[in-house]
Amino acid sequence: MGGQVSSVEGVHVVVVGGGFGGIAAAQQLKSEGLSFTLIDLRDAFHHNVAALRASVQPGFAQRTFIPYAETFGDSFVQGRVERVDTERQTVILQGGRVSSC
């Protein structure tokens, strides 16, 4: 099953969570040149599958952490989502920070 992406003027996508699905969505949006924000509590993705290899191969552990800011630049916001205001189309983060949708 495939999907089609259509660019809509003025649309901004907010991806909550930088796990495998969130990263895949953000990468797709980035490759299509669409406006998005990826929000995650952590500053990097930890590739758990590679953890076993990291325990036996010197220097490999640092490769299991992929910093979101390096991959997504200004499209990444670190924080905890408290709620989504659908009327105002905003995401409210812990501490009162607001991200527009």
Task: Characterise this structure.
The protein has 101 residues and is an alpha/beta fold. It has a single domain (13-100), classed as FAD/NAD(P)-binding domain (3-Layer(bba) Sandwich), CATH 3.50.50.60. Helices cover 23% and strands 30% of the residues. It has three helices and eight strands. It has helices at residues 20-31, 51-56, 68-72, and strands spanning 13-16, 36-40, 44-46, 65-67, 76-78, 81-85, 90-93, 98-100. The strands form three sheets. A three-stranded parallel sheet has the order 1-2-5. The protein has a three-stranded antiparallel sheet with strand order 6-7-8, with no helix packed on it. The longest helix is centred in the first third of the chain and has 12 residues, at 20-31. The radius of gyration is 16 Å and the shape is elongated. The relative contact order is 0.17. Its cofactor is 6-hydroxy-FAD. It comes from Seriola lalandi dorsalis. Keywords: FAD, Flavoprotein, Oxidoreductase. This is Ferroptosis suppressor protein 1. Residues 12-54 form the FAD/NAD(P)-binding domain.
CATH class: Alpha Beta
Taken in chain order, the helices and strands follow as EHEEHEHEEEE
The counted number of beta strands is 8
Domain unit count: 1
CATH homologous superfamily descriptor = FAD/NAD(P)-binding domain
How much of the sequence lies in strands comes to 25-35%
Low-confidence stretches: none
Main beta sheet: 3 strands, parallel
The CATH topology is what?
A: FAD/NAD(P)-binding domain
> Could you say what the CATH architecture is?
3-Layer(bba) Sandwich
- Mean pLDDT over all positions: 87
Radius of gyration: 16 Å
Distance between the termini: 27 Å
